[in-house]
Amino acid sequence: MSKIQHRNLYREVADRIRELIEHGELIPGERISEKQLCETFGVSRTPLREALKVLASEGLVELLPNRGARVMQLTVKMVKDTYDLMGALEGLSGELACQQISDEEIAAICDLHEQMLTHYRNREMQPYFKINRRIHESILAAANNEVLQEMYNNLSYRVKRVRYSKKMTDNFWRQAVNDHEMMIEALKKRDGKRLGQILRDHLCNKLEVVTLAGVIENDELINAANA
Amino acid sequence: MSKIQHRNLYREVADRIRELIEHGELIPGERISEKQLCETFGVSRTPLREALKVLASEGLVELLPNRGARVMQLTVKMVKDTYDLMGALEGLSGELACQQISDEEIAAICDLHEQMLTHYRNREMQPYFKINRRIHESILAAANNEVLQEMYNNLSYRVKRVRYSKKMTDNFWRQAVNDHEMMIEALKKRDGKRLGQILRDHLCNKLEVVTLAGVIENDELINAANA
DNA sequence: TGCCGGCATTTTGAATTCATAATACCTTTT
DNA sequence: AAAAGGTATTATGAATTCAAAATGCCGGCA
């Protein structure tokens, strides 16, 4: 029995705008016309503006007083900063998870790990990433810290756009899988310090940033290079 | 030359409500009457409701659809979770700070540290905490990661209310000062790993939570015990 | 030709109004 | 007297309206 979802318009609208940003249909830096969005969504300006306020405090859009809203522009530094943060959060999630994770949960993660390995051997990128993501989510969930989850998801959303532009070279991929092996090992031993360290240091996300940093200057804007 | 502050009403209102919450004039769990707040602030419902949306995504208030807003109720678990997170963030700030902090910045922090020690020796609680806070803020600033700063400040705001109820026993205090000595040492050596570890493990905030946890059950609400 | 200033238009900010969901109160019935 | 149901009231959700700021356009002027 799932909770009844009283969907307010502003939540709905916020979700839709998030999608638009994620899929690159709203260009970063470009001015968001309230009227236009109102028309496309078929709502009045009130819920739309409320949605923009929420998105602004999530860091997805920027509100310039008397000058409307625009999609937050990401710089390489911002992305790097965000990834540093996410690394720390993943590390914490690993430590906390080890303190209380059940045998069943560990088994489930090991199972996911095996599936991931299969996808790796078959060089199936998309399925690989999907499982990869689920593993990290499982650890995050096992940490049993809602505040942490909320923060992580928020950060994750901010940089979701740039994930499309990642390049997965064979070397990086192998390294990533190797890290996951170590992770599983640490998890089985419930070695929180070690799992945390692995997650912090070797966040597979890092390589994406490295890739990016090679191309774009530190304070330069990230162009909306999406799929 | 400071930036011109275009103060929108909703920002102003949000700030005011934050103050009300912080000072315990809005009781956690108690329903926030829109009309009443509108009258006290002398604004219409539109900016008020926008402010509430912002505060909600900051985690300070809770919006129940069709049922108005209420000040977020803190449970001991939530506070503990938040402090775990803040510990991780402080740890990160230490690591990052060591990578790029200048000699001048280190000197400034050492200076603050000396001031703090004086207040400690004189048993001047309030000044001690003030300087203590400034030290942590300095390290956070030296980390040069705006996203991190933003997150930390947000988390800090959420639990600001409970800080009033902390008890500083002699033992805890001595321990805290001792940690600070180690911190300074690590900072001088620019030993990021170590500074991070010290900050993570021995966040002086932790003791407050411990104190609290001794009195209140884990999922119990924290009563609005303010100064 | 290029720049400045004023008017018109557009867009945002805030108040008001209208609609609908929730709550309280009162009546009715057992 | 207590409970159930229905109506009245109140509070919230959303649209509309009004006000003010910003932008754009045009003409005048150097």
Automatic annotation (TrEMBL), chains A, B:
It comes from the Bacteria. InterPro entries: GntR_C, TF_FadR/GntR_C, Tscrpt_reg_HTH_GntR, WH-like_DNA-bd_sf, WH_DNA-bd_sf. PROSITE patterns: HTH_GNTR (PS50949). GO terms for molecular function: DNA binding; DNA-binding transcription factor activity. Gene3D superfamilies: GntR ligand-binding domain-like (1.20.120.530), Winged helix-like DNA-binding domain superfamily/Winged helix DNA-binding domain (1.10.10.10). Signal peptide: none annotated. SMART domains: FCD, HTH_GNTR. Residues 7-74 form the HTH gntR-type domain. Pfam families: FCD, GntR. Transmembrane segments: none annotated. Keywords: DNA-binding, Transcription, Transcription regulation. PANTHER family: TRANSCRIPTIONAL REGULATOR, GNTR FAMILY, TRANSCRIPTIONAL REGULATORY PROTEIN. This is GntR family transcriptional regulator. The lineage of its organism: Bacteria, Pseudomonadati, Pseudomonadota, Gammaproteobacteria, Oceanospirillales.
